[in-house]
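Hi R.,

Quick one: here's the DNA helicase RecQ sequence you asked about.
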Amino acid sequence: MLDQAQRILKDVFGYDSFRGRQGAIIERVASGGDALVLMPTGGGKSLCFQVPALLRSGLAVVVSPLIALMEDQVATLDELGVAAVALNSTLSADEQRLIAERIRRGEIKLLYVAPERLVQPRMLSFLQGLDVALFAIDEAHCVSQWGHDFRPEYLQLGQLAELFPTVPRIALTATADMRTREEIVQRLHLQSAERFLSSFDRPNIFYRIVPKEQPRKQLLNFLAARKGDAGIVYCLSRKKVEEVAAFLSEQGFPALPYHAGLSNELRAYHQKRFLNEEGLIMVATIAFGMGIDKPNVRFVAHLDLPKSLEAYYQETGRAGRDGLPADAWMAYGLQDVIFLKQMLNNSEGDERHKRVEQHKLDAMLALCEETRCRRQALLAYFDEELPQPCGHCDNCIDGVQTWDATEPARQALSAIYRSGQRYGVGHLVDILLGRDNDKMRAVGHQHLSVFGMGKALSEGEWRSLFRQLVARGLADVDLDGFGGLRLSASCRPLLRGEVSLELRRDLKPQQSAKASSSAASQLVRGEEREQWEALRSLRRKLAEEHSVPPYVIFPDATLLEMLRSKPSTLAEMARVSGVGARKLERYGEAFLKVLAGSAEAPRAVVDLRHELISLARAGMTPTQIANQLGCSEKNVYSLLAEAIGRQQLSLEQALDLPEELLGEIQDAFLDGEGELPSASEISEQLGGRVELGVLYCVRAALQAEFEA
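And here's the predicted structure, written out as tokens:
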């Protein structure tokens, strides 16, 4: 059976060999056994049910929680020549009837369906009348009531075991600690399932966590080396998402907001753009992400602290699904901790649930203040041991400096206690530094014994110390008051002099060895850049023609292998990983032409034009576009005028001109008889008041109107 599976893997999917435990999982499910699969994002989970679906007779039913994920997988399978459909709420009654007919006739191999639709009696009855090959339950951790992605309808999927006792079931997830795994087994009745637990490690992701000082400036520094890369920036609140998306757009980074407060239509539109366009940044709350199959997300940045290590692992795991280098970057500060603790305190749920959530938050804080290898600490949380430090996180690369903070910590705790355990860090730092201001005098704190006792440390060092005291549970946040700090029981041994305290010393940004280098920017060497852009440009053109995201044609990893192995015949192209029979037939010749340098247009220019149009449509100014694309404004105006002339852009999309000025320019062009005057002539007429590039664009718009 494995021979047959290997043949399908190569002929349909274009891969030479299975990765990790894929082969064993496929053999188990294809021969009729149940399986619980824990595999990191990007590990190739979908092949674990798609290959058995093609090996077994009948219809494979895939339970998926998100429409976007279903549509993405169906589009990918369609490109491979596999008959797959999704049944979801976007379809009309007629379309649904048509799909049902095709299923009855045996024309469909994989059916993607949401859990709430699958458990409807009518749907279950329909499936009972068919030959069902297997059930695949994707994102199976949604069954856990303790998890951050809990979906109540997943609890009803246990009935599949009773209704279809002879049909194999495979439950798959990328995020499940031991407790969640047991919950999946119990609730989905998978007691007889063989468990396949792959490593949680994502070795291609570089982890960096920095103290939050000037978060926007820090984010810009991080993004500076990542222009043109697709990425996700996570924020906790909707308001912050909107503000950060607007800020990044102003700074020349094409960014879109995504949160639950936007209309369904706008969310769907932004998600589609993110999947289909290159180099977009999605600024989002956790409403965005599950089921995002875009393999070439090159970075995930957190401007706020996630609630748990499960959330952090899952969100950072959306980067680098193609196995190529990616970055996970986070800025975190004491305010994040206070905000999350307040949220937890105000949340619904019993005390037991709150204790579990508090434990998860404590584990997240421990990772932030970790002095060992970050990857070792992260994997240890998921019950996995990494014997050696990874050498691929900030702690391993930069090294961690610690210092004996025993005495300053006692002074800080004393300041909390003596000021009445009700003040925030700002006021406590002022006490320790001896700042004799109006607020201090109003409450008489200039007379405290600790006033001015901490002048040996800077304000930044004190803030770092207070943050670490809270993270380690030695001080706590007064959630009933105004978020001031108070002592916790665990600080007593320190105050009594029974223990000492080593704390992490925050590095200055310039000391951070690789703070600005981009893992992704190392993908393509300088001399390869032009051909790389040509390959991406052809991919984008084909994606538009076939109405699918570019990575569905070929992922970056496949293009990179083409670039490096330089196939010159279809037989050589067939050996490139990710090029199956169907794609070889459809696209092989076109990519060979680009690799041979005989494509009909200079692809890099085509690529630039396409990106420029996308950025203009996103509302960027010509100056911002020039910064983003790394070319002159003169070139940008020239390409904008060309796009307007071809009616790929409207004048309004390209330029934001005051109505009065636009009217004046148009009148100047239309004053004469016959042909439109040149932009240079009009520039002279207007006394050089208007940029020549603007005049090119207005002229192109008028010319297009005349020719229409």
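The longest helix spans residues 351-368.

Cheers,
M.
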